[in-house]
Hints:
Shape: globular
CATH superfamily: 5'-nuclease
CATH architecture: 3-Layer(aba) Sandwich
Number of domains: 1
Domain PIN: 4-120
Organism: Segetibacter aerophilus
Strand order of the largest sheet: 3-2-1-4
Order of helices and strands: EHHEHHEHHE
Number of strands: 4
Helix content: 40-55%
Mean pLDDT: 95
Protein name: Twitching motility protein PilT
Low-confidence stretches: none
Number of helices: 6
Structural class: alpha/beta
Amino acid sequence: MSRYLLDTHTLIWWNEGDKQLSQLATKTIENLANSLYVSIASFWEITIKLQTGKLKLDYYINELAAACITSNIEIVPVKLYHLNQLSLLPVLHKDSFDRMLAAIAYSDHMTLISKDKQLGAYNISVI
């Protein structure tokens, strides 16, 4: 069984059926043998972007969380060992949420599903 962490944009694209999600990412998410995860940090990022007007959604954040639960995508809390790993990462990526996701993926031995190829610089697998 493989473990996959969805990046914030991946979560939104999956929920909306957006064609920007690659075929490989879609197949990976739809494969029932895989364990899927999303960080609570992604919901935090979405909330901030909604508040600042950088993102518009036609649904509420609790509806997105419910879609995750219905689809067996586990919502992962940020734990102290994730923060410890984050503190060890070099600042190769300017987005603090992306660095947090890289720390979670590294700590929890997950492959990150993201369009952001820069995240591979953190010694994690990225689809």
